[in-house]
Amino acid sequence: MPSVSYQITPADPAAHYFDVQVTIDNPDRRGQVVSLPAWIPGSYLIRDFSRHIHGLTAKTGRSALAIKKLDNHTWQVAPSSRRLTLNYRVYAWDLSVRCAHLDQTHGFFNGTSVFLKVHGREKQPCQVTIEPGSSTRHWRVYTSLRPARRGRQTTLPHRFGVYEAPDYDALVDHPVEMGTPHVETFTVCGAKHEMVFTGVLPNVDFKRIARDTAKICETQIRFFEPRSQRAPFLDSADRYVFMTYVTGKDYGGLEHRASTALVASRQDLPVIGNDERSEGYTGFLGLVSHEYFHTWNVKRIKPQAFVPYDLSQPNLTSLLWIFEGFTSYYDDLMLLRAGVVDENDYLQLLGKTITGVHRAPGRFRQSVADSSFDAWNRYYRQDESSINNIVSYYTKGSLVALALDLSIRNATGNRKSLDDVMRLLWDRYGRRFYQSRQRGLQEHEFAGLLKQATGVDLQSFIDAATEQTDDLPLASLLETQGISLSWQTERRAPGIGATMRATATGEPGLAQVIEGGAAHAAGLSAGDILLAMDGLRIEAANWDKLQGRYRPGQQVLIHYFRRDELRSTQLTLQAPAHDKCNLTRQSASQDSN
């Protein structure tokens, strides 16, 4: 029996409470210290999950012990030499991939939100008993945690019972979904996969989703392991679990070592009887591909700053452009290689990414290395001016990956590529990560590894691309591979250099004001509510038509509210931006010129 064991119960779904018990054999005689993580890997923001813990008590036998709080997420129990039992409740009403959620229809939790770490026992095996509540005995359990064997009995798949983990880090890296979801299964490369869908799901074509996902998973396994074709999670779990909660409009995912938690919009999923592939469904498949690629890149291939994770404080690295950016590059590329999109579709996806980066002036103020390092207080804490001051290490990082891939291919006559670099990273840092103590990628080690894998020295290019803010030479790099990059105007009407967002009451408000644009020059700010243009009322439905009545360079009178103050300003309309990227395959005649 492990010296630390947990029990969790969906005790009060209507009030959204899990009950948790922690049992500690031979506690620290100086006073056992316990803590809850302050953040969850993959989401780089201090979230203070401990604020959801209520009623923490400690007992040894029948005797209650005093508890002293040491900081926002750490407690110390009074000294005791006997078995210690902690009990507490966790409020679970965060419908996201990061925390915990419980109601009458389902329960979901990440271990970082519910399981206290027992200091001094982090490296020891532990067990967790997942118990049904009085109203949830008909539910089933879905997780990549291994069922525990107790004597001659082993917890049956998808049943409440006892599960085990080799240490605390593993315990909190296997989320749990419970309820009565729709489940699809498939096996590729000898590895079982489960797709678990929770929510209201009318007429969803689950079979199609499973078929497409299977192609993506097989393609990625064969990419990293062309010889063994072995899935990496088989060293710690007997299956991979996609847990998808379906809502009306949400989108997001969070990776784990043998599973991923997703939220998706109902409108993005395909319906039975319609074989068309919508933009939303392509986006969902891209999300699935992204999180699955993380099984290798970030869950096993890690920056040194994450080895091991310190979940009590920010873990700073300037390399998220590799671990998130490269994953963002390969997620759509794997859709192409798996055959779920064609080349034209892929070029549209790539063009959309280039467009998004190009439209954010913050790319000239922040490098992707700085964006990575500042993720904790800038990228994950964006405000109305972030578009002017930061760049995304996801999207700009994916373009750095594209530029490196093209540079390697061009220098080697397509004999080498970024694929070779990823496989070297996997062999050097990832393949045996959970089997033996390994180090992570050092901050300035990548260029040397790239040269080792490909024979190409791109040190100067990498330094400029990641530490400076100039645009990448994508047009010339793509041209050598037969792809033309051009810029188009997406709309004909003039603009004001700002983005609009309807307020809670439906009024048209300014969400972001681009520095140097017309709105900025006229003194408008994010949060202003636009009322009228030249005496005509502005509404979200008529905004484009109103602008379409004018030509670039004309002045208009804008009335607006700032807070509760009525103001007006003269605004000179600007020409529509020439900022939509279009990628096309060059024709044979163009290639010969």
Give an overview of the whole structure.
With 593 residues, the chain is α+β, with helices and mostly antiparallel strands. The protein has 4 domains: 4-179, Immunoglobulin-like (Sandwich); 181-284, Orthogonal Bundle (Neutral Protease, domain 2), CATH 1.10.390.10; 296-485, Neutral Protease Domain 2 (Neutral Protease, domain 2), CATH 1.10.390.10; 498-572, PDZ domain (Pdz3 Domain, Roll), CATH 2.30.42. The strands form 8 sheets. It has an 8-stranded mixed sheet with strand order 5-4-8-2-1-12-17-14. A 5-stranded mixed sheet has the order 19-20-21-23-22, with helices on one face. A 4-stranded antiparallel sheet has the order 6-7-3-11, with no helix packed on it. Helix 4 crosses helix 5. It is globular, with a radius of gyration of 26 Å. The relative contact order is 0.08.
CATH architecture of the largest domain: Orthogonal Bundle
Annotated CATH topology of the largest domain: Neutral Protease, domain 2
What class would the helix/strand composition place it in? alpha+beta
Overall form: globular
CATH superfamily of the largest domain: Neutral Protease Domain 2
What number of structural domains do the residues give? 4
Radius of gyration: 26 Å
Treating each run of at least 4 consecutive H or I residues as one helix, how many helices?
Answer: 16
Low-confidence stretches: none
**What share of the residues does DSSP label as strand, in percent?**
25-35%
The total strand number stands at: 31
CATH class of the largest domain: Mainly Alpha
Q: Mean pLDDT, as a whole number?
A: 95
The helix fraction, in percent, is 25-40%
Tell me the span between the first and last alpha carbons: 73 Å
Give, in spatial order, the strands making up the sheet with the most strands.
Answer: 5-4-8-2-1-12-17-14
How is the main sheet built?
Answer: 8 strands, mixed
